[in-house]
């Protein structure tokens, strides 16, 4: 994934499409890099269910009241001709008219919203032809412009078809009658006062009318992460690097606490001196961080722990301003031991320590 040019140069930084070739001096190494695309991570909020209203109805309530009514009028009694009465029916409302409310809930319909999560990009890639007849592989190098399609994610949403509402129906009033005696023929001659008679009736009246309560249900949203192309890469540049860093993994003498991926203050100094300065001096380089463990503990646990440790180094460098696209974190667990100390083999602490290492290598 990279080419190294062992060419002489002045004490200036190389730039452009080729390393400097005039006034060469030995001991200079350059890596041929293709500048990567630069992205900005953004988040978009999608409304998957809109705000709507939920209605709750409460029916009318009644209370029973008593009323004193006159059931027989006062009159006079005659000694000789008594009064003559007749009975009549008097109507009254025993239950008043009221309304009943019924809720028709809100309805929704399914929908989909297409979100572009990764844009369409393209870049130049260099390949060497097979069966190259020249001893110089540069003579058979081909530059190909490769396009990569965009990626999208379909987010299921719901749209409001009709909001909640109510319908009402009426309850008819209930009528009743009571009987009443009224004078048909008054008494004559001697008059004797006859007092009126009264009775108590009961009737139902509306205590609280029917009502409806509204409750607003907030909208439901979903956050989608997307990458936005900020600067298109694909340019070829030459970066001067320390020759000792080229061609193999380079050990970072980072010591972690037992069963921990936290970077210690001492490890921060090591990363700044051995790796952060290299990436700042050569902004086109891409680096792979590789972490390993010894054989003690389960294979799955060691693989997860090594990945966490490699990622902690990447996160630290990103926090120092290094673009995350220039870094790759890879945990190998106990799959790349540097000695015989595999599972079941009796080894010293020093031998196990040799396997608990973090390395980095230039991958572009």
Automatic annotation (TrEMBL):
Keyword Membrane in record: yes
Protein name: OmpA family protein
Gene Ontology cellular component annotations, sorted alphabetically: cell outer membrane
Main subcellular localisation: membrane
The entry's keywords: Cell outer membrane, Membrane
Cell location: Cell outer membrane
Annotated ranges, domain OmpA-like: 243-364
One Pfam family this sequence matches: OmpA
